[in-house]
Amino acid sequence: MADYDVITLGETMLRLSPTNLRRIEQANELELYIGGTESNTAVGLARLGLKVCWLSRLTDNPLGRLLAGKIAQHGVDTSHVTWTEEDRIGLLFLEEGKAPRGSRVIYDRQGSAASRMRAGDLPRPLFHPTGARLFHTTGITLAIGTDPAAAAAEAVSWAKEAGWLVSFDLNYRSTLWSPATARRGCDPIMQQADILFLPERDAILLYELAPDTPSEGVLRTIAERYPRALIALTLGPEGAIALAPGGEIHRQASFPAEEVDRIGGGDAFSAGFLYGYLSDKRGDSNIATALRWGAAAAALKYGIRGDFPVITRSEVEALIEGATGAGVVR
Prior knowledge:
Elements: E1 4-9, E2 13-18, E3 30-35, H1 37-47, E4 52-55, E5 57-59, H2 62-72, E6 82-84, E7 91-95, E8 104-108, E9 132-138, H3 139-143, H4 146-161, E10 165-169, H5 179-192, E11 195-199, H6 200-206, H7 215-225, E12 230-234, E13 240-243, E14 249-252, H8 265-279, H9 286-302, H10 313-321
């Protein structure tokens, strides 16, 4: 039996948002949340019942300890985080808007502790055959600096040597790198990954596809580049589709959801998908199960303020089975 089901690697930041849809220049107070794509996924997996460890590099000050504590309180093991007296914690300012004014994100993360993480900061002894079942990271970790990119690549190599599965979420951020640079930077890990997550809009942008390319065509184009991977393509309100090597395309509609906070929705999908995939023992047929769990977890997250998917397994199961409980006070 593995020590962990999943180990994730990446940066987590403090998220600061004005209240009541105010602009930042109007703000008298800021709400504080914790967010980072890999830790969001880790929280979702832990809350669904898996054993999860999150790896990163944090500044040993009250802000760093706040980050680690908030993640740990959801059942994620943070004991292997590397602590440093140097550097800083990254910040994300979110200015929420409603149509016609869109939301706006401002990053203040340059020089963060995680952006200077190296392979030597990672707990190499964890990467043994029974250390975990799956390693997960994202394109954001590769984008924040050459050192964390090299560390992530090394971790993927260790995971593959240990016989683990590797999952990778493209998670493109235009504020961090260009489409061409992202495509080149992510390709080596995507070539090794067993499971790939891509938002359709990112796939179209990075692989220079026509905007009106059908979703199935986008998926097959990605599959041609990465033929060994199970590929899950998220389609926003249209749900998601997935394709295993040599298999059929599986489709999953989205579950109806009233949006409260969409940040972290993709991470909740990854958590639900990985939970469904790792928990279902029926081989390739578990792709449909994984898609249902991913879509349901994402829908629940949309109704939750903050980045973390503060969900339970029973809630996801109820949504999948049709007993949503919408409008019911418990």
